[in-house]
């Protein structure tokens, strides 16, 4: 069985979980935190989450997991049949993650926990976000799915990265960097999909459990 080690708080965990649910693949989730312990690094060389175990071994990196699922479970394809169209899906995912989500992630500790943030970093990230969102906007169609009329792996990424980036940029800059794109209608469509509903429900349950634990400690 496919095992996913990570946390419902991780958008990269949820990216893979969404693909698993959309494909109808049986899987097991194991709640795990990142670690630099030797035994952890033996299973996940990066020390990050999520990582994955399948028959015969394991691997890390969420995009590798999506590709594995597409190869091993083709009955519900989440990549187009055409080679160029498949490349365009992969292109969009890389731009969204490399030039938008990972850029905004530099502000996460400040947005979520109030960690110090240098003004120079804030300004630098704003410039990079402008460039990244412009690239993403040129690639995405939102008609109605991010790459057109068919739900793809790009949606598994966009559906989890867009909300996080929105929360971060709104908290830090007071504005949503996606506001000029039709993401509200897109996410409304996503919320009708049972797989996305399940991911959101599990995240809500995890948040409630964390809040209860925090109250108990107090």
From TrEMBL:
Coiled-coil segments: none
PROSITE patterns: GST_CTER (PS50405), GST_NTER (PS50404)
Protein keywords: Transferase
Domain of life: Bacteria
Residue ranges constituting the GST N-terminal domain according to the UniProt record: 1-77
Domain GST C-terminal: residue ranges: 82-215
Pfam families given in the database record: GST_C_2, GST_N_3
Record GO terms (molecular function): transferase activity
GO cellular component terms attached to this protein's record: cytoplasm
InterPro entries with a match to the protein in the record: Glutathione-S-Trfase_C-like, Glutathione-S-Trfase_C_sf, Glutathione_S-Trfase, Glutathione_S-Trfase_N, GST_Omega/HSP26, Thioredoxin-like_sf
PANTHER family, per database record: GLUTATHIONE S-TRANSFERASE OMEGA, PTHR43968
Name by which UniProt lists this protein: Glutathione S-transferase
